[in-house]
Design goal:
Strand order of the largest sheet: 5-6-7
Strand content: 15-25%
Helix content: 40-55%
Largest sheet: 3 strands, antiparallel
Order of helices and strands: HEEHHHEEHEEEH
Shape: globular
Structural class: alpha+beta
Distance between the termini: 54 Å
Number of strands: 7
Radius of gyration: 20 Å
Length: 196
């Protein structure tokens, strides 16, 4: 426990000093001697071909197609996928923020896009995700976007699988998106009792 606390303190001190504390380097950045700088060529791709395209109304799959058409690969020389582009658009590092210790550190990553653009893009992504979940099957979840998690307060969306249950899920850690709580109600209740 004592060692763990020392590690946490060390990481926090590094963040306060504006130092990179490890992990994969996001596309569009360089890291040298624990200091992050912008890779201008790749940053322009992030800005113009990803954020600005989505901001102007393009879908993620359109962005992926555009990147493929331009022959633009990721840092590992692989073709971009929908999930890869989605992760870029959701990464707060690109607006210059590192979330840790219940704090937004703005002294580690220089911003590639404005906070206004980043926040608007992510607001649209949330709406698009909620809409796609609601309409991806013939089953309509009357409580999607209306139920709230009693623990985190997040809105819950419906989902169904092979089993005869309707599930309502919400992300319990909005910043890190690591843990997901699942709530289930029988399909009989969902399909008949909720049929108004």
């Amino acid at each position: 426990a004592e060692l763990s606390q020392k590690v946490k303190r060390g990481l926090k001190e590094s963040r306060i000093k504006g130092l990179f504390t490890g992990g994969p380097t996001p596309y569009g950045y360089n890291v040298k001697d624990k200091k992050v700088s912008i890779n201008e060529e790749k940053a322009n791709i992030v800005r113009e071909y990803m954020f600005n395209q989505y901001y102007s109304g393009k879908r993620i799959k359109d962005i992926v197609a555009l990147l493929a058409e331009k022959g633009i690969k990721n840092s590992y020389d692989k073709s971009w996928t929908i999930n890869m582009v989605s992760r870029v658009l959701r990464n707060p590092n690109y607006k210059g923020c590192v979330y840790a210790d219940n704090t937004c550190y703005t002294n580690i990553f220089p911003a590639i896009v404005s906070e206004e653009v980043f926040d608007e893009v992510n607001a649209r992504l949330k709406v698009a995700k909620r809409t796609s979940v609601h309409f991806k099957t013939d089953v309509h979840y009357l409580l999607s976007g209306k139920l709230a998690c009693g623990k985190c307060g997040g809105l819950m969306t419906g989902d169904s699988g092979k089993v005869k249950w309707a599930r309502f899920t919400t992300t319990t850690n909005a910043l890190q998106r690591k843990r997901i709580k699942t709530f289930a109600i029988k399909s009989l209740f969902h399909k008949k009792i909720l049929k108004i």
